[in-house]
Design goal:
Low-confidence stretches: 1-7
Distance between the termini: 51 Å
Order of helices and strands: HHHHHHH
Shape: elongated
Mean pLDDT: 75
Structural class: mainly alpha
Strand content: under 5%
Oligomer: single chain
Radius of gyration: 18 Å
Largest sheet: none
Number of strands: 0
Length: about 100
């Protein structure tokens, strides 16, 4: 694996050095770049073991570079039925739908 080290992103690599699993390393590197994570945000994700909390199906999708859905990353998504067929949902309408 070849990494081009830029001075402004050097801290990412130092945070990722202790990670031994190559897939986990690639996961954290990709999300840090895609989400433009700060050092503290990346540390938090590593500390809470975000990668290890993913189920095997999602990990396999990430390894094989398949298109992932939000449902893959959210363990138990909450579905809110829009019984009144609102087209735009504000916080007030969302509260009404939940309660």
């Amino acid at each position: 694996m070849c990494l081009v080290m830029k001075k402004c992103h050097q801290w990412r690599y130092t945070e990722l050095l202790p990670i031994k699993d190559e897939n986990e390393l690639i996961y954290y590197l990709n999300i840090s770049i895609e989400q433009n994570l700060s050092r503290n945000d990346l540390r938090y994700k590593i500390k809470t073991k975000e990668y290890e909390c993913l189920d095997e199906k999602t990990k396999n999708k990430l390894i094989s570079v398949q298109e992932s859905k939000v449902v893959d990353f959210v363990k138990d998504p909450v579905l809110i039925k829009n019984s009144n067929n609102y087209t735009e949902i504000s916080e007030k309408i969302l509260r009404k739908l939940i309660l």
